[in-house]
Specification:
The chain contains 18 helices and 14 strands. It is of the alpha/beta class and 467 residues long.
């Protein structure tokens, strides 16, 4: 199922004979082993040799080595260098700090730093709320992780998590002009994480928790929401839930179903799955079945941690037991945030007519999208190489833009639902179809629409409740 993509793009510098067939031989060798060429540049030309940079996409690091070996096997061809383009863009990191004010002379320095800055310090000491107006707090978010659940890779620790947090910060800036900064903590102790974030919070207008393993992430988020006067958002939970709910609203419009008549299976009841269930319940579906590696979650199943007990108490009205395959029979919707290759086309065929399948495990979904399309009416994945990509970048930049602009102190279910509706509404009625239920992540109107929706709710919301 994997196809060559830019995540495994390489540039190979080769030296070859200057024959008329040289270019064809090189490109044919790559094509024969499944590489996809995206650029071919002659960088040197001599009487006896040419030097060529060939850029191509592979499916994996191993596949990239196969491509290189295929080139080396050609008569008279020597590989000088192989550059992994993903590693190249990470050299030295992906972020920098750039001053917003000019520092060209003594006058500038006197206002930006001493002695003028002392007046600003005194103003904030007198009125702490001025920090939002007179410092970076107005537009800055901390992206906080302990590295315990990095992507789908597991517990890699804070240093290995840093590239992900840098990327997150870059997306904040690109899509919503929010200044975000990675905060990778060298501890996985719940109390230490809570206390550390509490101590650094004065600098930030919001906290984005990221890649913290369940169930610890639930307590960390809940406690920080109680302790801090700024919004705390766990993107693995709420960002995913927002986009899923928005996408599902449009998918059900495509298939002509009302969520009140739908039985929904959510596979994976950790951070993302639990948040999806909680947000879906606000729309009163017919029923939801939570499923994990031990099967359907039900109230009599033991052991149940606090999260699973909550899920069991609020879902599975008929007390159904069994496996994922059992849960799928007659289901209208499948939402997977779990593990790859859990079922196939035969199981999709047992679902209700006009079924909706969101197989979001990344990079390999719970079911092959091609197999799912044989029987489901709408299929979505977390991948960029299939239609209907469910991607958190549709949510979190705009959510924080709206929270910061509103000077919000908390985040509520109403804000999350407003963000979901805003994402869904970006897809106009005349655009909506089975292959287009969510807008592109590069649609510039998405973050603005989400920010406006969140800001309106935040401006009118005087409560302190939230998810």
């Amino acid at each position: 199922m994997p196809v060559p993509g830019p995540g495994y793009s390489i540039t190979v510098r080769v030296e070859a004979p200057p024959s008329a067939s040289a270019a064809g031989d090189l490109t044919s060798a790559i094509g024969q082993v499944g590489g996809v060429i995206t650029a071919f540049d002659v960088v040197e030309s001599h009487a006896l040799t040419i030097v060529v940079d060939i850029t191509c996409n592979a499916t994996s690091a191993d596949h990239a080595r196969v491509i290189t070996e295929a080139l080396e096997a050609l008569p008279g061809v020597a590989v000088r260098k192989v550059s992994d383009r993903t590693f190249l863009i990470h050299l030295g990191g992906k972020l920098e700090v750039t001053p917003k004010v000019a520092l060209k002379n003594r006058d500038d320095l006197s206002r930006a730093y001493t002695p003028g800055v002392a007046r600003i310090c005194e103003a904030i000491a007198k009125n702490p709320a001025d920090a939002r107006r007179l410092t970076i707090k107005r537009n800055t978010v901390a992206v906080v992780t302990d590295g315990s659940a990095v992507l789908g890779l597991g517990n890699l620790g804070p240093a290995a998590a840093l590239p992900v947090m840098e990327g997150k910060a870059a997306l904040f800036k690109k899509f919503a002009d929010v200044d975000a900064w990675p905060v990778c903590l060298d501890t996985q102790d719940t109390e230490e994480i809570i206390r550390t974030v509490q101590l650094i919070a004065p600098v930030y207008g919001g906290i984005n928790l990221e890649d913290i393993a369940a169930p610890r992430c639930f307590e960390i988020e809940a406690r920080l929401r109680e302790l801090l006067d700024i919004p705390v958002f766990h993107d693995d939970q709420h960002g995913t839930a927002i986009v899923v709910v928005g996408a599902l609203r449009n998918a059900l419009r495509v298939v002509g179903k009302d969520i009140a008549d739908c039985r929904i299976v959510v596979c994976g009841v950790g951070a993302a799955g639990s948040a999806i269930i909680r947000l879906l319940l606000t729309s009163s579906p017919k029923d939801i079945l939570g499923v994990d590696s031990r099967g359907i979650v039900h109230i009599d199943r033991e052991p149940l941690d606090n999260n699973l007990r909550w899920v069991a108490e609020h879902t599975n009205a008929d007390g159904m037991t069994g496996t994922l395959h059992d849960a799928l029979v007659g289901a209208d919707v499948f939402v997977g945030v779990s593990a790859p290759n859990l079922f196939g086309a035969d199981q999709v065929a047992t679902m209700a007519p006009n079924a909706v399948v969101f197989a979001l495990a990344n990079p390999d979904p719970e079911v092959d999208p091609i197999d799912a399309q044989k029987h489901a009416a709408v299929v979505a994945t977390g991948r960029s190489d299939y239609p209907n990509q469910i991607n958190n970048v549709l949510a979190f930049p705009g959510v924080f833009r709206g929270l910061l602009d509103a000077g919000a102190t908390n985040i509520t279910d109403a804000m999350l639902l407003a963000a979901a509706d805003a994402i869904a509404d970006v897809v106009a009625p005349d655009q909506l179809n089975a292959s287009f239920i969510v807008p592109s992540v590069f649609d510039p109107t998405v973050a603005t629409a989400v920010a406006d929706a969140v800001r309106r709710v935040a401006a009118s919301d005087t409560g302190h409740g939230g998810t």
